[in-house]
Amino acid sequence: MRNTFCLEWDQAHGAKLVDFHGWNMPVSYAKGILAEHEATRTSAGLFNISHMGRLRIHGPQAYKFSNYAFTNDLTHCPIGSALYGFLLNDKGGIIDDVIIYKEANDRFLWIINAGGRETDVEHLKRLSAGKDLTMDVLSDQTALLALQGPKADAILKRLAKDVDLDKIPYFGFGRGTIQGKSAFIMATGYTGEDGYEVMVDVKDAPMIWDLLTTQPEVTACGLGARDSLRLEAGLPLHGNDIDETTQPYEAGLGWAVKMDKEGGFFGKEALNKTPGRKLIGLTLEGQNIPRSHYKVVSEGKEAGEVTSGVFSPTLKKGIALAYVKIEFLDKPLAVDIRGKAVPAPKTKLPWVRHVSKAKQK
After folding, report:
1. Which residues does residue 347 pair with via DSSP β-bridges, in sequence order?
2. How many domains, the chain?
């Protein structure tokens, strides 16, 4: 397994380490998942997300190529802002969901998932063969931290210099310094809370991590809380809710696909805008906990399958994302838990989201 810059700190602070896409990552620290989840919702949680990939594509054909490789439309993305979208295979399946930050008209920073650090780059290299551009893989030279929660803004304002955080909108970014070290500061996250993701040089990461964890409002958090937070926010996880066998429209993510953009995009021709199933939210009655691969049923018939589920620490109920066949979407739904059909009404997403920097999508 590969280690991030944070392994020694993790081991010294009670981390429960697991293999996550080949990375030695903490599920939680000594306080546990519930405490970390609550800290992020009420104060500030700090996550080491350096296992995710980072690459910069720049050069004369960087814009044209990036826009073709990506389902969203960078034409409508101002410099200093970012867009969420997908890399698709030739069947329209989601190779990865990514965020692209537009640094200039010929310069783009891509943030990709841990599971795509190799596959995404290989796919992009194949598509870019012969193009006049340069692809710099920054994953090993940088670290990525996420400071999330209602107090994240105030904390970072104390510590970040040479940048006006008030001028960074939701899904925007800026450059500043922390303790004199360069920091690329992005107003994005995966928790449904206000906050920032911060990219720094890997050699500076231990010092900046230590600085952030010693702030009185900050709780270090692991993958467990990150998962329960993103699920409450209705955000899909690649490998669970979306993958190379699923398409954006069936996942309810067609808003990040611009079918009419100039030049099109790779995988467009294979997309189905009227799929036979949809990814929806379900809220269970009682104290029941849905799990991935549990069956969704309706009036004795199999209607679909849970892809992600958790007992929501905020709502004190079981919640799930599940693919459900179109013909059952307006019928009573239940999740089969050990042979018992537990009622699970369809729920509009998200369950919990508090993003104040701008209007949510």
Report:
1. 281
2. 3
